[in-house]
Write a structure and sequence with these properties.
alpha+beta; two-stranded antiparallel ribbon; 39% helix
């Protein structure tokens, strides 16, 4: 298929990912979205092969409340990780947002690497992303989640479960 027939869905993808985070973070989320590689539908997976996908964000979402604000977190994302030099330009909050987005990646190794970066993240808005991993089939995520659920984050999990 010729490139000019392909519809650019990056605006739609950005809109959907904005809905996964609280309004107070919208400027930071937009900065993160600007470095995400929405332009390719060829993704490299853990098997080392490149696979073509038709949608970079799965249509299913997890609907949650976060301080009474509705959020819609995608079940899975299928786009590649951004270039490391682009990640290096992010603020600490933006970097945390980036990690949360990639906790929904189709590759369990990517989810594991990103979760390792969130062990000490105590922001309440991180909770729905990490809690969603408890239902995952990737065993290697469980010890990391065990480290993340600690004295610093336990109240966030309690509050989130009570709200939802």
């Amino acid at each position: 298929m010729l490139n000019w027939f392909k519809k650019d869905k990056s605006k739609e993808y950005k809109s959907r990912l904005l809905k996964a985070f609280p309004q107070t973070l919208q400027d930071d989320v937009k900065a993160v979205l600007d470095i995400l590689p929405f332009s390719t539908t060829d993704i490299k997976l853990a098997d080392g092969q490149t696979h073509r996908v038709t949608e970079l964000i799965h249509s299913n979402t997890l609907s949650v409340l976060l301080k009474r604000e509705p959020l819609m977190i995608p079940d899975r994302i299928y786009f590649n990780e951004p270039a490391k030099e682009n990640e290096a330009k992010l603020s600490p909050t933006q970097f945390t947002i980036l990690h949360c987005i990639y906790l929904r990646h189709c590759d369990g190794h990517v989810r594991q690497r990103r979760l390792e970066q969130l062990i000490d993240a105590a922001d309440y808005w991180v909770t729905p992303f990490t809690l969603q991993l408890l239902g995952e089939y990737v065993y290697e995520l469980l010890p990391l989640l065990n480290k993340h659920v600690n004295e610093q984050t336990l109240a966030s999990y309690r509050d989130f479960v009570n709200e939802n």
